[in-house]
Every structure is written in C-alpha cells, then in structure tokens.
C-alpha cells in the first residue's frame, strides 16, 4: 500500500508533509503507513484566518442554520463512511471498533444538530434560564444570555478515536458559532484527515470555520488569547504541561481536559452467581476490556466485586475472555491490536507496575497471539488488598487490561471506586434501587457519569463505555476536571455567559423574546389570522371579559368529574387557608381563557401543542370576571412549512390583578393555505 501523506489545512490551503515529516508505522505488521507533518505552518495566520473569516461567517448564521449545516454534514460523511472504514484497520481497530469511532462520531454530530434545532433559538443569542425579577415593579430585570466566543477553539485529540474525537468536539463548537483548529494525534492522523477532507469537500462549512494541523502545534498555544478555548483529550501528563502554559494562564484561556481515568465497574451486593445480573456484569467487563483493545477513555480499569464473588467472577470473566479471537483487524476477529508498538510498550510497562500490587489471573498464556508490533492479549489481574494498593487506583494501562478487587460492603465498594481520584464513569450492576441510591450518594461527586443496570434495563441500556451526546462526558480530578457533550451545556463551553440587566424593552430587543412589561404591538387582525412570518414579537390582544358564575363551576365539576371540595363545598373551602370560599377550577379558567382569545375560523394556526410554566396566582370566586392578554413571546422555525409560536397568556380579574399565567405553544403556518 502506498504511504499516505495526510495534509494540514491552513488558512484555506492544503499543506502536505514537509522535509521533517515523521513516518508512522502501523501496529499490525509494522510497515510504514503515513508520512506526517514536518511542514512549517504559520499559526499566526491560521488564528487570523479563523477569527476574521470563520468566526464572522459562523456568527452570521443562526443557531438553527448552524444546526442544519451540522445535520447535512453528518449525512454527507455517513454517505461516504466506507472511505473511512477502508483506513480503519490500519489503526489496529476491527470494523466493530471502527463503528464506535466512525458511526459514533456521525451520530454524535447529528444528535447535537437536533438538539440545536429543538433547544436553541433560530437567532443569535441563546437565552440561558429564566428571567430574573430583580425589581419590585418589574421595570428593571435581568437575563442570562450566551453568545459565541470571538476567538478560535483549538481541539487537541487523542489517538484512540480519530473520527469521533474530532466530530464530538467540532459539533458543539460550530453550533456555538466558533471556528476550530483541529490537531489530531499523529499516530492515527491519516484517518482524521480523511474525515476532515470530507468536511472541506462538502462545501457545507464556511471558509475559516475549520482548519487542521498534522504534526506539532508549534507556537499555536502561545498565540492564543482571551476569546480562545483549548479542548484537550489525552494523557494527564500532557494536559498538565499544556494547561500550565503561562500564556494560557495569563489570558485565562478556557482549558477543558479529558484525560486518564481509572473507571470502575461494581457488582452489587445483592447479586448472586446464578442471577442474570452476574452474567451481565461479566459480559460487560469482557466487552469493555476487548473493544478497541481496551483503548477507550471509558474502559473498565477496575472491577470491584463482593469478597465472596471474587473467584467466581475471576473464573467466569477469564473463561469469557479466553474466547477472544485476536488478529489482523481487517479479518474476522473479535479483537485487533493497540494503535502502535510504542503503545504496546507503554501498556506492558504499566502492567508491570500494576503487578507490584496485583496477581495475574489471565495473560497471554493460552491465547494464540499473532505476530505484529501492536498485539497485546486480554489481561486480567486481581488485587487482594485494594486498600493498600496505590498503582491499581492510579496507573492507567491503556489497553485490554483490568484489575479485579474485592469489597467488604457497599460503602467500601464506593470508597474503592472513588480512589480513582475522579473518573469518567463507574457502572453498577444491581437489582436493588436502594443499593443504587446509596452508591450514587457516595460516588456521584467523583464521577462524570454513573451507569446502573439490571436484567430489566439491560436490553435497552446504551453501554458502560459509550459517551452519549446528551450526557456529560468528563469527570473531576484525574479525569481532567472538564466536561464535554451533555447536550446544549456542551455548546455553552464555546460561548460567553453574560448577565444582561435592563428594562423589559431592552431585554426583549436583546433576546428576541417578549418580556412582560415590554412594549405591546397591536396587529392589523386577530393574531390567529396572521401567518408565522406576519406575527411580530410583542403583538398582543386583550380580550373581552366574562363573569365566572357558580353555575359555571358546578357545570364544569359535573362535566369533568372534578368535584374537589374547594369548588363544591363552601364550608370546607373556607376552612382551607388558600381560598376565601368556593373557587373556580384552574382548568375552568384555562378553558374560559381559550374561549376568550381563540378566533375560531380556519387560519394559519394549525395546532396547540402544549403549555409551559402554568401558575395560578389568585383564586377566582363566583361573580369575578376574567379577561386575557395574549402576546407573541417567541417564534421558532420548525419545518419547511410551519414554526412554533410561543405566546404569553396572562389572565386578569376585574381589579386587573393577575390570576394566572402560562406559555402557550402553537404551530403556525408560514403561509396562508
Ligand atoms: P498524549 O497526551 O501524548 O497526546 C494527546 C494529544 O496531545 C495528541 O494529539 C498529541 O499529539 C498532543 N500533544 C502531545 N504533546 C503535545 C504538546 N506538547 N503540544 C501540543 N500537543 C501535544 O497522549 P497519547 O495519545 O500519546 O496517549 C498516551 C496516554 O494517554 C495513553 O496511553 C493513555 O494512558 C492516555 N490517554 C487517555 C485518554 C482518555 O481519554 N482518557 C485518551 C487517549 C490517551 P501527537 O500525537 O502529535 O504527539
């Protein structure tokens, strides 16, 4: 096979390997597979290109436009994924391992795009949380917002997930509206480059939004400033070196790290060897040891079991692992190899460290081991005194290696899991929700994710080792202290959260959402006869009023079956501190409100899809009158033909006192039928 020459993509130009290029050797047979880096890159020009071209182009798009771009990009890569699978075995990964990397990356990008469409506005300002009422009369308010940072995000990625590692960071960054410079790990950079090439060739991403560095980062980090971000995945040592760079500290550059993690899996004290949970636990441990040959940041490094089950688990897990077929990852084998000869040397050295504290349960003896510089057998160790152990809780052998350890009781199990010093994930297999609760209370503070399964949830469970775009990926302490993904929270890492204080009109203008107290607009027709595009933020109708009678309340009670005493029994209602006597049902008020504001003719309003944040502020008694103020609060495009209009509905009594408020959601057509 011809040697691959992956190129950097700097300031709109591809830059191939230079005179000082490094040869990358494959882990399967040791042959040279790529020439990488070695060409001088002008990092100043790259930053400038990102900040002056990529940033403004991305910021000119709304969140929804960027989300659509990411959706299209994920589809574009998915259609061409076989070009990536063709390179995947060179990294030592089987096709199944490759799916975690390639499909996993595509799905992550797609899910982040969907979340952008659903949970972010079709605008340029993200509204973070509720309006803060900081004045008595409501003439001065505050709202947290988030806007894209004005610099560049530098992504430094690990060798083990060349595709997922890039896409899981790019998706939230681009959705936020920030350009990125991606630096993949050299050992597997040719696969990252192949995927990056697809991104550029798609023409979907504005110029300057993405750039690629193959090889060293030179003075890139020394040139970053206040609006930039570094997002790193790799070893704790490199993270420490990079995050301590004076330039990054001087400018308070955000530095997110996802690094070594001594993840654990705990077998609940309720589990017996003949229960489905026992098999589930063993199967999960075997999977996590062998997938990607254990080179997963989330892999199980410590297997924590009740003292009495140490031997049964050791036997069952060894038996299962012994069935692992190991070989050329392009063939029909369960496990391929480590990413490089150096990685194998690193894993072997770390196993030697672990063996100071743990005995060998399973090693390469008994396996048919292929020749090749990256092959390493599934290795199971057991540490009989994990309280005394140090290395077993701190040395990460980044390969198919795991250490069994016994616990006395649940607090001890949790304490051992926490000895990892901060981990990405710990799993617990138990059928007892109280065991789960106790473990969560003891261990959540030390983990980014807790994964709890039993026989009932296992069929749909997503996997101990699978970071999901919806959920936090990161962990405290040793795991790096950073967070990635986690839905829209992951997007906010590339944005500035700012509290904006001002009057209602100011906040309406800034957020694009009508705030109570802001100017109201009178439209030329009833709002239910206005299309999505015609409706303006702040457009308001105030309805006629109607009297709520005792007959109405009794009719509603009989009609719906809701004969709660507060509506039907004067004496009992009076005894309730909330009510002056019999009062109208809250749902009756809502129904009357709809009757007051609805315009009944066919028109652009297609459907009522829900209501949010309903609150009742004051009881309504028989004889009170009711009227409604209905205001267009927020508009969000949803499909090619209609969008969602959120209305503020406020109900008042005859004394202009507010009795109820909610946000009504409707789907409204863009055009008249
Ligand atoms: P490194 O920390 O050496 O490398 C990670 C990334 O940082 C790579 O892209 C690397 O580039 C880059 N890098 C290294 N030094 C610098 C520098 N001075 N300036 C800028 N970028 C730099 O980790 P490895 O990938 O070599 O893996 C080593 C160990 O890290 C593993 O054995 C494992 O223990 C742990 N690891 C943990 C992961 C996790 O998610 N928990 C993931 C991967 C690794 P280059 O490749 O060009 O050197």
Automatic annotation (TrEMBL):
Gene Ontology molecular functions: oxidoreductase activity, acting on the aldehyde or oxo group of donors, NAD or NADP as acceptor
InterPro entries listed in its UniProt record: Ald_DH/histidinol_DH, Ald_DH_C, Ald_DH_N, Aldehyde_DH_dom, HotDog_dom_sf, MaoC-like_dom, PaaN-DH
Pfam short name (any one): MaoC_dehydratas
Coiled coil region boundaries: none
Domain of life: Bacteria
Keyword Zinc: no
Domain MaoC-like positions: 537-645
The entry's keywords: Oxidoreductase
Domain Aldehyde dehydrogenase: 27-496
PANTHER family listed in its UniProt record: ALDEHYDE DEHYDROGENASE B-RELATED (PTHR43111)
Record protein name field: Phenylacetic acid degradation bifunctional protein PaaZ
């Amino acid at each position: 096979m011809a040697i691959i020459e992956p190129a950097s993509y700097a300031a709109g130009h591809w830059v191939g390997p230079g005179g000082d290029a490094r040869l990358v050797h494959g882990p399967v047979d040791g042959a040279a597979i790529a020439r990488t880096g070695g060409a001088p890159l002008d990092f100043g020009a790259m930053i400038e290109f990102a900040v002056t071209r990529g940033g403004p182009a991305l910021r000119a798009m709304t969140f929804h436009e960027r989300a659509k771009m990411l959706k299209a990009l994920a589809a574009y890569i998915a259609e061409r994924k076989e070009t990536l699978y063709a390179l995947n075995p060179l990294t030592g990964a089987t096709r199944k391992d490759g799916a975690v990397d390639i499909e996993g990356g595509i799905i992550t990008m797609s899910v982040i795009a969907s979340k952008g469409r659903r949970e972010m506005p079709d605008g340029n300002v993200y509204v973070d949380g509720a309006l803060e009422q900081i004045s008595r009369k409501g003439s001065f308010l505050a709202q947290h917002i988030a806007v894209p940072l004005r610099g560049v995000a530098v992504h430094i990625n690990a060798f083990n997930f060349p595709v997922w590692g890039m896409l899981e960071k790019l998706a939230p960054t681009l959705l936020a509206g920030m350009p990125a410079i991606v630096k993949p790990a050299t050992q597997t950079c040719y696969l990252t480059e192949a995927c990056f090439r697809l991104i550029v060739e798609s023409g979907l991403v504005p110029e300057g939004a993405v750039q690629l560095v193959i090889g060293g980062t030179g003075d890139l980090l020394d040139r970053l400033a206040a609006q930039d971000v570094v997002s790193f995945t790799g070893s704790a040592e490199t993270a420490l070196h990079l995050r301590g760079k004076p330039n990054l500290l001087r400018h308070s550059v955000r530095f997110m790290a996802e690094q070594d993690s001594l993840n654990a899996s705990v077998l609940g004290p309720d589990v017996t060897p003949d229960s489905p949970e026992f098999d589930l636990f063993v199967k999960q441990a075997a999977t996590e040891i062998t997938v990607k040959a254990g080179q997963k940041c989330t892999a199980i490094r410590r297997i924590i079991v009740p003292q009495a089950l140490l031997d049964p688990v050791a036997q069952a897990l060894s038996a299962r692992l012994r069935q692992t077929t190991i070989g050329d990852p392009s063939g029909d084998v369960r496990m391929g190899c480590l990413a490089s000869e150096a990685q194998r040397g690193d894993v072997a050295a770390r196993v030697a460290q672990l063996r100071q504290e743990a005995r060998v349960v399973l090693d390469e003896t008994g396996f048919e081991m292929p020749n090749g510089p990256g092959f390493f057998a599934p290795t199971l160790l057991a540490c009989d005194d994990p309280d005394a152990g140090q290395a077993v809780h701190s040395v990460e052998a980044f390969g198919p290696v795991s250490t069994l350890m016994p616990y006395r009781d649940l607090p001890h199990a949790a304490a051992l899991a926490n000895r990892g010093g901060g981990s990405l994930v710990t799993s617990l297999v138990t059928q007892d929700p109280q065991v789960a609760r106790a473990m969560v209370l003891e261990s959540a503070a030390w983990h980014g994710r807790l994964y709890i399964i039993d026989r009932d949830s296992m069929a749909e469970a997503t996997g101990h080792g699978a970071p999901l775009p919806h959920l936090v990926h990161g962990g405290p302490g040793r795991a790096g202290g950073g967070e990635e993904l986690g839905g829209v929270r992951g997007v906010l890492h590339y944005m500035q959260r700012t509290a904006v204080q001002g009057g209602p009109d100011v906040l309406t203008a800034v957020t694009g959402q009508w705030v109570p107290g802001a100017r109201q607009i009178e439209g030329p027709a009833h709002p239910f006869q206005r299309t999505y595009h015609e409706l303006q933020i702040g457009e308001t109708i105030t309805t006629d009023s109607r009297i709520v009678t005792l007959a109405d309340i009794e009719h509603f009670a009989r009609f719906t079956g809701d004969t709660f005493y507060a509506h039907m029994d004067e004496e009992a209602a009076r005894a309730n501190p909330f009510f002056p006597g019999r009062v109208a049902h809250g749902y009756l008020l809502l129904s009357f409100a709809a009757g007051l504001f609805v315009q009944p003719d066919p028109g652009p309003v297609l459907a009522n899809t829900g209501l949010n944040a309903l609150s009742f502020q004051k009881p309504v008694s028989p004889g009170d009158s009711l009227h409604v103020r209905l205001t267009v609060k927020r508009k969000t495009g949803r499909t090619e033909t209609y969008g969602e209009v959120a209305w503020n509905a406020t109900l008042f009594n005859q004394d202009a006192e507010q009795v109820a408020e909610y946000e009504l959601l409707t789907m409204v057509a863009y055009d008249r039928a």
